Automatic annotation (TrEMBL):
PROSITE patterns on file: PEPTIDASE_M14
Ranges of residues in domain Peptidase M14: 1-233
Keyword Manganese belongs to the record: no
Full protein name: CBPC6 carboxypeptidase
GO MF term set: metallocarboxypeptidase activity; zinc ion binding
Annotated active site: E196 (proton donor/acceptor)
Superkingdom classification of source: Eukaryota
Pfam families xrefs: Peptidase_M14
Origin organism lineage: Eukaryota, Metazoa, Chordata, Craniata, Vertebrata
Length: 250
């Protein structure tokens, strides 16, 4: 094995963790396809996926609201709660999935051997086009600038991702969301985002060239999200390249 293999699994090694959640709003079905794209890519034999597995730990909760999905609800759980407003104090009885995931995140955050570096919550948007992100606002300008790096890199990798639609806010209405709550809980080396993707289309060259989203296009966005971690952590040099073919001599 190469010397860099499974760096994050060596005894005593410090783990860099990327935590991804999806489908907290059951009606936002595109988020499941994006999440599926991330999962399929990460477990594949792709050389980039192998490098990512060797250097990062991905924790993925692909469906935070399974009872709402089963019932065909658009936004709420079985108990009628919008789970994405209860991150601050989830009840183990009324919001069990949220309570469990939050406890896991807190346990990892308190573990000195784990660096919880990213939290990304995947949603779908009913009025805007393309993929885009919401991030948090911080008083520390340098931290704020660092937070913009990942969406800028994703914009370079995914033609349907829009950095111009990406915004950073501290809207009081969103205070109970995963992105807002965890952004205030975790340290200044953790980045928390909401990844939104349009229900219907993305624009490539202006408002007249809208391309309808398909399941495959959503999954492609997911693959591009995963690939962007390679650029973010500057691991490109570790990707095994296919051997160059030698032209046959006559």
């Amino acid at each position: 094995l190469p010397s860099f293999a499974a760096e994050n699994l060596r005894p005593g090694a410090e783990q860099k963790v990327v935590f991804i959640t999806a489908r907290v709003h059951p009606g936002e079905t595109p988020s499941s396809f994006v999440c599926q794209g991330i999962i399929d890519f990460l477990v594949s034999h792709h050389p980039i996926a192998k490098v990512l597995r060797d250097h990062l730990v991905f924790k993925i909760a692909p469906m935070l609201n399974p009872d709402g999905v089963y019932l065909g609800n658009y936004r709420c759980s079985l108990m009628g709660f919008d789970l994405n407003r209860h991150w601050a104090n989830p009840s183990p009885w009324a919001h069990p999935t949220l309570h469990g995931v939050k406890q896991l995140i807190i346990d990892m955050y308190n573990n000195p051997k784990i660096n919880l570096e990213f939290y990304i919550d995947i949603h779908a948007h009913s009025t805007m086009m393309n993929g885009f992100m919401y991030g948090n606002i911080f008083e520390d300008e340098e931290r704020f600038q660092r937070q913009a790096v990942f969406p800028k890199l994703l914009c370079q990798n995914a033609e349907d991702f829009s950095y111009s639609s990406t915004s950073f806010n501290r809207d009081a209405v969103k205070a109970g969301t995963g992105r807002r709550f965890l952004g205030g809980l975790l340290n200044d080396r953790s980045y928390c985002y909401t990844l939104e993707v349009s229900f219907y289309s993305y624009v490539l060259d202006g408002p007249t060239s809208a391309v309808p989203y398909t399941e495959e296009a959503y999954m492609k966005l997911g693959r591009n999200v995963a690939r962007t971690f390679l650029d973010y952590y500057r691991l490109n040099s570790l990707v095994e390249r296919p051997p160059a073919t030698t032209p046959k001599t006559r």
